[in-house]
Write a structure and sequence with these properties.
Number of helices: 8
Structural class: alpha/beta
Order of helices and strands: HEEEEHEHEHEEEEEHEHHH
Distance between the termini: 41 Å
């Protein structure tokens, strides 16, 4: 069986039957020298090329800073062009908020020497990128051509960072994933949270630790920001609406799944329980509920069922 890259290499030698996939990125100004490229409020799919995560572009005198880089080499390259057009300078630094591929695999378009991540994420790259990559190639095909996630060469540590006269503060947290990075722009009070915060979109939980996630949300809520750029969904122009919405979903989800199990429901039945009216407007709420059932059900069973000796 041909490996995915061999297959794409073979396809590259065939006559072109259609235009190559193209990301048509639009940047939304949210504060002085800060723009957000909104991701699609949908799952990763061929139709969106995996461009479902919000990407933040920050202007500095030393060059543009990207917070996250998208899902593919093509998207990262398109973000580099857009950042240069917006800021007048090339990208100088890329921060990855976590390893999930819709946020990180676009770093393929940048030298490893300008990519920064927490030590835990850097370690995850070595162990987990192959599995993520295989999944993305299956879902996105030619959108992924040339995508090879580099091992980040720069360490993102908690505390202040000054880049080209722009003061940022980094926060190393966890909960949505084993290692999550949030970034506060001190001048404008803009807090970029990665997937610790979702807004008007149901939170995704593939690697979630819910108690740790709640603690992280409590920390973010106390930072005194002016606005929040979530990992998915529209920018929140208030200090805490999106943070509170994310917390409310998590606070409902865990006991709801436990109650479904106690009621003797199957996984399919649990994925079809009623979603409270307060979440009726959240994008992909039913899908994320069903995904969360698959993520947490085995743990709930292990906690509830007796362990047999031997």
């Amino acid at each position: 069986m041909l490996a995915r890259r061999q297959l794409l290499g073979a396809l590259a030698g065939l006559p072109l039957l259609a235009a190559a996939p193209d990301y048509r990125l639009v940047a939304e100004p949210v504060a002085a020298g800060i723009w957000v490229v909104r991701g699609a409020d949908a799952p990763i799919a061929m139709a969106n090329g995996g461009a479902i995560a919000n990407i933040t572009i920050i202007a500095t005198d030393a060059g543009a800073v990207l917070i996250d880089a998208g899902a593919s080499h093509r998207q990262g390259a398109a973000l580099a062009v857009l950042a240069r057009r917006l800021t007048g300078t090339p990208v100088a630094r890329v921060y990855l908020t976590h390893l999930h591929p819709d946020h990180s695999f676009g770093a393929s378009a940048f030298p490893a020497s300008m990519v920064a991540a927490t030590p835990a994420v850097a370690a995850q790259v070595a162990g987990d990128k192959a599995g993520f990559s295989a999944g993305l190639y299956r879902l996105l095909g030619d959108w992924m051509r040339g995508t090879e996630l580099p091992a980040p060469a720069l360490v993102a540590q908690a505390g202040p960072v000054l880049i080209g006269g722009r003061a940022l503060r980094l926060f190393t947290l966890a909960g949505h994933s084993p290692s999550d990075l949030a970034v506060l722009d001190e001048a404008t009070g803009t807090l970029i949270t990665g997937d610790l915060v979702f807004h008007n979109r149901a939170p995704a939980t593939p690697h979630a630790d819910l108690p740790a996630w709640r603690r992280a949300l409590d920390q973010l809520a106390a930072l005194g920001q002016a606005r929040v750029v979530p990992g998915h969904g529209p920018v929140d122009g208030t200090p805490g609406t999106a943070i509170a919405q994310t917390r409310a979903w998590l606070d409902w989800l865990e006991p709801a799944l436990r109650a479904a199990m106690e009621a003797g429901m199957t996984m399919v039945e649990a994925g079809n329980i009623a979603i409270p009216p307060q979440f009726a407007g959240l994008a992909v709420a039913r899908l994320e509920l069903q995904r969360s059932v698959s993520h947490f059900w085995a743990g709930l069973e292990a906690a509830r069922l007796p362990r047999l000796a031997g």
